[in-house]
Write a structure and sequence with these properties.
The protein is α+β, with helices and mostly antiparallel strands and 217 residues long. The chain contains 4 helices and 4 strands. The longest helix is centred in the N-terminal third of the chain and has 30 residues, at 36-65.
Length: 217
């Protein structure tokens, strides 16, 4: 059968291309080209889930080994002996587990102005961070030193409440380049994905109000 002379040259080129690419029905696509993106995504998601599970386990171990919270006197950021002992236990655990990162948040009572309590919370968080660093925890392992001020009370009361005057140390993740601990499967599966984001939580720079004699929680 002759092709009509009216078919343009470009049309003939396209026809030849389609014929060359044709394959029989039911052909299995090549493993190197079909589904590669989905396969890679599944691997990445699996690694992320495993890492998230490991972080949760480390949080539980940390809280079993050391108090994650230290408390302060009313309108004070000085660390009493029990608070220093708790931070010493935190530092010892963190040094023994060098692959975890933490965040320290400071809190205040619902007494006094909001801006004042933000500053007081930050001062408390910094006091806790200084003890950890003095005890040998690398500063680069502390993602953030921040203040919640009066925004996250345990006891929502406008009277002095010790439970509200606190600094909390929380495990936030793993250091980059972490590989498994050798107890979670075959060697081929030990390498975990690196953290997906390079973002580091900044300190609460707006919460730097100097604690004054006017008082707060």
């Amino acid at each position: 059968m002759r092709l009509p002379l009216s078919i343009p040259v470009s049309g003939l080129a396209m026809l030849a291309f389609l014929v060359g690419c044709a394959s029989e029905a039911g052909r299995t696509p090549g493993a190197t080209s079909f589904g590669a993106a989905q396969h890679n995504n599944a691997i990445a998601q699996s690694a992320a889930l495993r890492q998230a599970g490991y972080v949760e386990e480390e949080r539980a171990r940390f809280m079993a080994a050391a108090p994650d919270t230290v408390y302060f006197a009313f309108n004070r950021a000085a660390l009493a002996p029990p608070a220093r002992a708790a931070l010493a236990a935190q530092a010892a655990w963190l040094i023994a587990h060098p692959d975890v990162r933490v965040r320290i948040s400071g809190h205040a009572d619902l007494i006094g102005g909001e801006r004042y309590n933000q500053g007081l919370g930050l001062t408390r968080a910094r006091a806790a961070a200084r003890v950890l660093i003095d005890r040998g925890v690398a500063p680069g392992r502390i993602d953030a030193v921040e203040s919640e001020g009066e925004n996250a009370p345990i006891v929502p009361s406008e009277t002095p409440e010790r439970l509200n005057r606190r600094a909390v140390t929380e495990i936030t993740g793993l250091m980059r380049g972490y590989v498994g601990d050798g107890l979670d499967g075959e060697r081929a599966n030990l390498m975990y994905g690196r953290y997906a984001s390079d973002t580091v939580e900044p300190p609460a720079s707006a919460n730097t109000t100097t604690v004054s004699a006017s008082g707060g929680g």
